[in-house]
Design goal:
single chain; 417 residues; alpha/beta; Rossmann fold; seven-stranded parallel beta sheet; binds adenosine monophosphate
Length: 417
């Protein structure tokens, strides 16, 4: 199967060649013809499957064939759970659309940064808006945008949108959209709430499922290394040096741990940085840009910060702290081995987390051999199962982040971990 067989237009095919894609991924083969026909699509797809192009290419083709009405109208709306994902999708759309005869005005809007430039940019409308729900509602309340001409709605990572508590925001946004429209819904998992949302929003959809949701992509070598908790940083350093890993994404449980571990690695002479949700947007963007540009070699992150990130050429992911749930495990290790590249996912198993890791394995139908590294053999013995640290904030009003943590905790209990 080739991209041209999917009946994509010449300017889009040119952009695909320029991106270096040789053939469409399974989700693209399944979703692009349906989306080009104007059908609704209900797709189960992980990040890394090529899902962005699966909705962005047909969307661009459709928009290129028509015109935007004058005024504050928007022709297509892409809703996503996080700012990083919004930025990433905006960037992909610009790349895919760059050879189109008429430019497709694409705006990315999210919270945590000043609203004024976004309001200014929306003057005269836009062809595509990629948005997080909260900020889009703010813009709607300021009359900065009208959704009455939206012809295509895309919900990306719908499960995350709901897990983050965006159900009300989604309902308020959808109420403003024309009922005559195309809707494309992508989700890695389909818990009952997502099913209900899909049934409510989609009309006679084409169902597309390319990979079982619980199984990680096949090209990832997964390892489980036993180590005493206090020696994990040293072991990490040792592994990075002995294997010559050029770029490593390290997951820890808390914001504090990101700073602490990054600091210890820096003191050991490694170019390391921290990424967590409480950094300013500027600091997050910089940390990510430095990592992508190989200025930093190790990025120590929380789940929140790393969700949906697409870092090309990321050979290694390390679970310094184990994820809370089996689903999070899949998300985390899916950061590597993307679009056919090989990746390595390393899990550090300490005395406290043996039992927790066994649950993750059971859920994901895995059985990894336990390894010990010479010089780092653990002395501590296995402890009974305890919940991993959550890093919650006490004595404060419920913030958005507290809601997020609660949602994560709920998700963990749903998966039985
Ligand atoms: P996504 O699942 O949309 O986050 O895409 C994951 C990665 O796969 C991105 O780096 C894309 O640029 C890349 N990609 C998407 N489609 C293809 C393709 N057909 N061939 C090779 N790489 C692709």
């Amino acid at each position: 199967m080739t991209f041209s067989a999917l009946k994509l237009s010449v300017p889009l095919l040119r952009a695909i060649v320029e991106k270096g894609y040789e053939k469409p991924t399974p989700i693209q083969i399944a979703a692009i013809p349906a989306a080009l026909r104007g059908a609704d699509v209900w797709a189960s797809a992980q990040t890394g499957s090529g899902k962005t192009a699966a909705f962005a290419l047909p969307l661009l083709q459709r928009l290129a064939a028509g015109r935007r009405p004058p005024g504050r109208f928007v022709r297509a709306l892409i809703l996503v759970p996080t700012r990083e994902l919004a930025a990433q999708i905006g960037e992909s759309i610009r790349r895919y659309g760059r050879f189109l005869a008429e430019p497709i005005k694409t705006l990315v809007v999210y919270g945590g940064v000043s609203i004024n430039p976004q309001m200014m940019a929306l003057g005269g409308g836009a062809d595509i808006i990629v948005a997080t729900p909260g900020r889009l509602l703010d813009l709607m309340e300021h009359n900065a945008v009208s959704l009455s001409a939206v012809a295509v709605l895309v919900l990306d990572e719908a499960d995350r949108l709901l897990a983050l508590g965006f159900a009300d925001e989604l309902a308020r946004i959808v109420a403003q959209l024309p009922t005559q429209r195309q809707t494309l819904l992508f989700s890695a998992t389909f818990p009952p709430e997502v099913d209900a949302l899909a049934k409510n929003l989609l009309r006679d959809p084409v169902r597309v499922a390319v990979a079982s949701t619980a199984e990680p992509p096949p090209d990832i070598e997964q390892r489980a290394i036993e180590v005493d908790a206090p020696r994990r940083t040293q072991l990490l350093r040792h592994l990075i040096q002995t294997h010559g890993w050029a770029r490593v994404l390290v997951f820890v449980a808390t914001k504090y741990a990101t700073e602490h571990v990054a600091d210890k690695l820096r003191r050991a002479g490694l170019a390391a940085d921290a990424l967590h949700g409480e950094l300013s947007q500027g600091a997050r963007t910089d940390a990510l840009a430095d990592f992508k540009a190989a200025k930093t070699h190790v990025l120590v992150a929380t789940d929140l910060a790393a969700r949906g990130l697409d870092i090309v050429d990321l050979p290694v992911v390390v679970n310094f702290d184990l994820p809370r749930s089996a689903t999070d495990y899949t998300h985390r290790i899916g950061r590597t081995g993307r679009a056919g590249a090989r990746g390595i996912a390393v899990n550090f198993i300490t005395a406290e987390t043996h039992a927790h890791f066994r649950l993750i394995e059971k859920r994901n139908k895995l059985a990894l051999a336990r390894e010990q590294i010479a010089g780092f053999e653990p002395e501590a013995i296995e402890a009974p199962l305890t919940a991993p640290a959550t890093g919650g904030i006490k004595g404060k009003r419920k913030s958005k982040k507290d809601r997020f943590r609660e949602a994560l905790a709920r998700e963990s209990s749903e998966t039985g971990d």
